[in-house]
Structure prediction request, 74 residues.
Amino acid sequence: MKKVILGSAMILAGIISIAQVLAGSMANEWKVNGEFSSLWNISQYGLMPAIYIFAGIAIIGFVLAAWGLIDKKD
Prediction:
């Protein structure tokens, strides 16, 4: 049960962190060459490694939560 709770918290933390980076990147510049582009802004700020790390945390949390559900203790 502890694995499920920890994994769920990690998933939530990863998703909220990614949402914050996406929202923060669009706070200053809304358009690039007349089109909306959050990924271009994130690349210009150098935050793509942070997106990858946060996504990795969310994926690890998902695996941990799934492992906690599948794990059977006698």
Remarks:
- The two ends are 14 Å apart (CA to CA).
